[in-house]
Write a structure and sequence with these properties.
This protein has a single domain, classed as Rossmann fold (3-Layer(aba) Sandwich). It is globular. The protein has 8 helices and 8 strands; from the N terminus they run βαβαααβαβαβββαβα. Bound molecules: adenosine-5'-diphosphate. The site of adenosine-5'-diphosphate has 16 residues, from helix 2 and helix 3.
Amino acid sequence: MDSSVPVAIVMIGPPGSGKGTQSSKLSAFLGIPKISTGDILRQVASGSSRNSEEIRAIMETGGLVPDSILADLVTSRLSEPDCKKGFILDGYPRNIDQAIFLESLLQVKNYKLLVVEIAVPEDVLLKRVTGRFSCRVCGAIYNKYFLRPRNEKICDQCGSADFAYRSDDNELVVRERLREYTLQTLPVLDYYKAKHLLVSVDGNRSLDEVYDELTCHLSKVL
Ligand code: ADP
């Protein structure tokens, strides 16, 4: 891997595709930060800044937060020193205008751009997302269909009994998030494909299998 060139890895996948988990593993492996716009927005939404209320309301219905808000948040996060060697973007860009904006940011900073799609069929996604819950204490992620804690009420990792569901993980909101993905984000994949920047990975397999394929692809191009 050529570490002299800073790299921008964009992870694209529908809700429940596992892009967050794969981004975290990749971030630890490559030693570059994972930047999740969903996490940043949830943090802003839970505070009391000028935009908090608006962001909270949009996220709760599964819509997309306005591009101008994302542009400010992403610009400021990417200018932090830990991004100098590169970064992994999880959840951005989600539409063509965001992709064009990101390109202008990266041009200035001279990053090598690589885009990864994690593809998963819709019926699998619904179960993955509506069944998902996490430990409030250590963040361990479970699923009521696929991955329950060994003892129903106790976290395997830290022993806590405090679990949380994301408020936007109910079926109605997930369907809306999937609709937004189809309408707004699928065109972004075509956009990157035409530029020969896209690598597509089959996400309907175990986390380890997906991760192995991902790193195998990346080692060829980085
Ligand atoms: P998921 O990928 O599972 O939908 P995320 O945590 O990435 O979950 O995003 C949660 C929500 O945050 C989205 O439904 C959307 O409302 C908002 N969001 C995240 N990233 C963006 C973005 N790039 N543009 C607009 N809204 C965003």
